[in-house]
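User: structure tokens for this one?
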Amino acid sequence: MLCQPADPDREGAGVRVALVAVMACVLLAASALAEETAEPEKTLADVAAQLAAPAVLRGKFEQIREVRMLSNPLHSSGQFLLSDLGLYWRQEEPVASVMIADSERLMQSVGNGPLQSIDVAKNPVVLTFSQSFLGIFKGDEAELRSHFEIGFESGDGSDRWQISLVPVSYPMSEAIESIIIDGREYIETLTVTSRMSETTTISFSDLQSEPGELTEHEIQLYAR
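Assistant:
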């Protein structure tokens, strides 16, 4: 019996089919391995615990405020300190000023002037916002839920996350439309949109949680 000559096209097709099958198996195995080894998506509770972990947080900030009546945005920058004593916010440019806020009081000074208490009874939005600001940085979910509807996004393949806050209680709901917070290990940007569609974006950098206790100098900053 004569042997039929091999059909190169048929053999080539068979090889291609075999290669496709092998590649499919490899891809399926890689996909299964990735699912097994992938980091679980972060939850709001995870991020809240992460933000609450540092006893002290220091850093720099840059703020850009877009006001409808102005053609150019307003820029400011400085340093901040966050601890159990509250928030110490020192603006260095363009005008030097200091603000100290905790759960009960709000104080401010301009230039070399003395710290003066802000009458929170006459400025309830300012007090509520400062309390919420502290709640954001300390990951105080209960404090935030008392004033905002909270949205949370994560799981894009990185460790980034985003929290959206929409005010649900007076007086914040009368002044603020939304607050968007983006971060990774710490908060990186915070964008506030007012009811007048004016936005303030604050970018944070050089964030440090060590030393884990306030220095004597830092304690005195709160006591000014």
